[in-house]
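---------- Forwarded message ----------

FYI, see the dna, SC012 record below. Original note from H. follows.
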Amino acid sequence: MPGGSASLSSFRIMAALLVGLLCCLPGVFAEIDSVFRSRPDLYPPALTIEHSVPGKVTPGYIFVGPYEAANSGPYIYDNEGVRHFRFPIELLSLTPSQNLVWSGWGSSGPGNAHGMHVCKYKGEDHLCFFQGAQQNGYCRGHGVIMDNRYRTVKTVVPGGGMASSDMHEFLPINDGKTALLTVYQQRQFDMSLWNVKTGMGWLMESIFQEVDVETNEVLFEWKSLDHVDPTVSYTYPGHTDTSGTGLDPRSPWDYFHINSIDKNQEGDYLISSRHTSAIYKFPARMGQ
């Protein structure tokens, strides 16, 4: 039919134009794979910036910690990248794929890495981050301090008999002499008020410490149950995928969920809580 022939001819013309366009573009990749001669075991995630305004981007590096990826760990990328074309054709656009600078997978320790940042330790810049095993809404692990050759020079753990810290905060302060860190600790608690069970159930207590980096001595400790009643929580047992049911120690009710800690020049601590939707400020004398 004439109409069908015209449509077929138009399709062939469009296909020929598309093939010609592809042949003229030397940098076309359907999938970007990186192979590193010094680390053939490494398959880093591809970091692509969808929108960038170069004039407003400060030169430097991008720190990421892929969450439960095949190659979990701390990664550093540049913020310049190499531009590639992306397909299908209707999504044709130039997007920068960032160049990998360093990966800590397999060398910095097992598990996920969180919160990598530049910190001061003994008067010099270092890399600091938390590394550990992912749990449901929290982690079990320790703080890591690396020098400018990516060597671990110090690991930091809680004091006072607590086995491990949590991912939400690891912040060396005072030139790296002390560090702020979070701890998530299961506690038995009467859950009758929330109709979870009659009598004792399980609750997750949020704790933070300021510790001496060299000795792990606890300089300050704060526990949520000593200051914040669970009745003020906005997240009830079993209501989210990370809130916990409160029925057993494997699923304690996370009523507080500490998110971050900071300390100002006056010595006051600031902490944020996700599940009470609040920020708390208090002086160091309120601790233990």
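H. also flagged this: The first helix runs from residue 2 to 24.
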